[in-house]
Write a structure and sequence with these properties.
It is built from eleven helices and seven strands. Helix 7 links the parallel strand 6 and strand 7. The protein is an alpha/beta fold. The chain folds into three domains: 39 residues, no CATH class; 211 residues, P-loop containing nucleotide triphosphate hydrolases (Rossmann fold, 3-Layer(aba) Sandwich); 47 residues. The protein has a seven-stranded parallel β-sheet, with helices on both faces. InterPro entries: AAA+_ATPase, GTPase/Isobutyryl-CoA_mutase, GTPase_ArgK, P-loop_NTPase. It holds the Pfam family MeaB. Belongs to the SIMIBI class G3E GTPase family. ArgK/MeaB subfamily.
């Protein structure tokens, strides 16, 4: 491990931060050493998760929040999880490009990475980068999930405050009455609130909360906020509510509890990644065992048992 590189990163040198995060993201031995050092320093940053269906305006809202927090003199880290190719596992979208102007600010660091097949909207790499940015002294860390709909629920175990974005005219009125993503939010943010359909969406979500159809995380009653991220409308109100929630979290012992949950989820997803890699190799090495079932449809149980035993031996 390069101690000088770590020292420069802690002092805020952007290139050093980028080099260390890249090593961490790709699970290199050196990267894991950096992560261990930074985890020991972490536990102070306030983390905000932003999720919602594709096109809800998550990146635009994050850009507006960056402006707000940097004006307050805070350091802001952003981790953006993009959909990934099922073949290369690389990122499809590259959200970082949409915020290129924000990266010119020395108090902002943005990293976009692929979900790499994780179904809960968050990957092991994303949590590792949050932990690292926390250890590097960032005050606010914003996580944007992959945005795949009702399955984006792992964010509950990763951040202090969760914002679920919804937009008028997209069917989110119905989503407000469904399980899954509409049960995880501390805040439900109606974006593009200048549209005429916004009031109906606001009322639908409000009704779901008041009728007890949404989950109250740790006793916090979810709130609904109307904004137009593109026009900057409602942002002051949203950040005011976020401050209130931060006070709630810090005052009730939840701040430390959610950091513990984040680290538990990191270990879980890291081990899942390792197990999946072993499984892929086991399947490749046992093509002959599998071929009889695959070609003729016979001896399914025999094939599963044999491959499973070989998988267990490898782990």
């Amino acid at each position: 491990m390069n101690r000088e590189l770590l020292k420069k990163a802690i002092e805020g040198d952007e290139l050093s931060v980028s080099r260390i995060l890249t090593k961490i993201e790709y699970f290199s031995e050196e990267g894991m050493e950096y992560l261990e050092e930074l985890s020991a320093r972490a536990g102070r940053a306030y983390t905000i998760g932003i999720t919602g269906s594709p096109g809800a305006g998550k990146s635009t809202l994050i850009s507006t929040l960056i402006d707000h927090y940097t004006k307050e003199g805070l350091k802001v880290g952003v981790v953006m999880v993009d959909p990934s190719s099922p073949f290369s596992k690389g990122s499809f979208m590259g959200n970082r490009i949409r915020m290129q102007d924000k990266t010119m600010n020395k108090n902002v660091f943005i990293r976009s990475l692929a979900s790499r097949g994780f179904l809960g909207g968050v990957s092991a790499e994303a949590i590792m980068l949050i932990e690292a940015l926390d250890g590097l002294g960032f005050d606010k860390i914003i996580l944007e999930t992959v945005g795949s709909g009702q399955t984006d629920t792992d964010v509950v175990s990763v951040v202090h405050s969760i914002l679920v974005l919804a937009i008028p005219g997209s069917g989110d009125e119905i989503q407000a009455l469904k399980a899954g993503i509409m049960e995880i939010g501390d805040f439900y943010v109606v974006n593009k609130a200048d549209k005429p359909e916004a009031e109906a969406l606001y009322d639908s979500i409000k009704f779901a909360i008041e009728s007890g159809e949404t989950f109250w995380r740790d006793g916090w009653k979810p709130q609904v906020v109307k904004v137009s991220a593109l026009k900057g409308m409602g942002i002051e109100e949203l950040t005011k509510r976020l401050r209130e929630h931060e006070e709630f979290v810090r005052g009730g012992g939840l701040f430390e509890k959610r950091i513990v949950e984040r680290r538990h989820k990191l270990i879980e997803l890291y081990l899942r990644r390792k197990l999946e890699a072993v499984l892929e190799e086991t399947l490749k090495e046992n093509k002959t065992t599998l071929s009889e079932y695959e070609s003729k449809g016979i001896n399914l149980n025999k094939a599963i048992r044999e491959v499973y035993e070989r998988f267990k031996q490898r782990i």
